[in-house]
């Protein structure tokens, strides 16, 4: 395998991702409590999460157009500043309604820098290191999200408004890192010729079975491993159902640790052995473990299953994003990337709602069966790609 070194620019993106995720990890645990401090219902406090994801989904297409028109680096920094201003303003929100509006504005900035970051990774990563670059960037986010809540707990005595200012500070820090350490790829020697290439359109991308498989994978992955995992597992392992008080937090922790371990190695595997040999097993493992989770009663078995589910989840992103990069092949494609991002946002929004309704109607066993089935069904989307002789190696016909 080609031992080409990872470009310095990728490491700059990883550092920026860690700073963003660290701040978000500090804020996320206190968001519902902060909303409740205004005297609103639990449903209203949960709306803070939904409005952020909803605005990301609503503005994904315009964000993709802006990235194509204005450039990835510029829109990445603009997105960071929007979220920073929104977060700082949240610290001084006088009412629940103001807080809701400010969180929604933050969602617009979030989708801008998310799409820009993914486009930058695709543009900057060497073809034979795309999976590894994706896993490094994802690891930066993951470790920030793991460390953030721990720091947030230490800040609890200082009140619920300070974390928003700290989050704004980490976002400004990420902005400065990109501003001074990441040159505009379009200004690099030889890149000006690339900008003359017409951006790939979504209609063109959809003709690729690999891109269609990436969309299906991102919906299922976000539905199961991002939406359902965070929203349903804590309830299903809660004290109200007879489990020890420590189990809910432990289940989420071991899932994150399992994801971290496999994410670090999954990118290299996808580059070395092909995308399908990573993303399909990842979907199968994650789906199978989620499917059986609702049938378990032993806390130790639940933790073991959550660990394996997390390991499966960690294999999905590097393979899917590496395959997406293979389809784009360094062409500008903000709208194509934004559509991929929209698929994930849609899954993250609908997953908890649907699975929550199933749990209310039929119980957690069936809820987790449905959640696991989503990932298992997504493996079928890769059959047409495999029949087209795509394995995920550089040089494959996409």
How would you describe this structure to a colleague?
With 398 residues, the chain is mostly helical. It is 78% helix and 0% strand. Helix 5 (72-90) runs antiparallel to helix 6 (96-124), helix 6 packs across helix 16 and helix 16 packs antiparallel against helix 17. It starts with 7 loop residues before the first helix and ends in an 11-residue tail after the last helix. The relative contact order is 0.15. The model is unreliable at 189-195 and 393-398 (pLDDT under 50).
Structure summarized in a few sentences:
This protein has 18 helices and no strands. It has helices at 8-27, 31-36, 42-58, 60-70, 72-90, 96-124, 130-155, 162-181, 192-195, 202-206, 209-231, 233-236, 247-273, 276-293, 299-328, 334-362, 364-380, 383-387.
Rounded to the nearest angstrom, the radius of gyration is 20 Å
Main sheet properties: none
Shape: globular
Number of DSSP helical runs: 18
Observed structural traits:
single chain, 398 residues, mainly alpha, 18 helices, 0% strand
Which SSEs are present, and which pair or pack?
Blueprint: H1 8-27, H2 31-36, H3 42-58, H4 60-70, H5 72-90, H6 96-124, H7 130-155, H8 162-181, H9 192-195, H10 202-206, H11 209-231, H12 233-236, H13 247-273, H14 276-293, H15 299-328, H16 334-362, H17 364-380, H18 383-387
Helix pairs in contact: 1-7, 1-8, 3-6, 3-16, 4-5, 4-6, 4-16, 5-6, 5-8, 6-16, 7-13, 7-15, 11-14, 11-15, 11-16, 11-17, 13-14, 13-15, 14-15, 14-17, 16-17
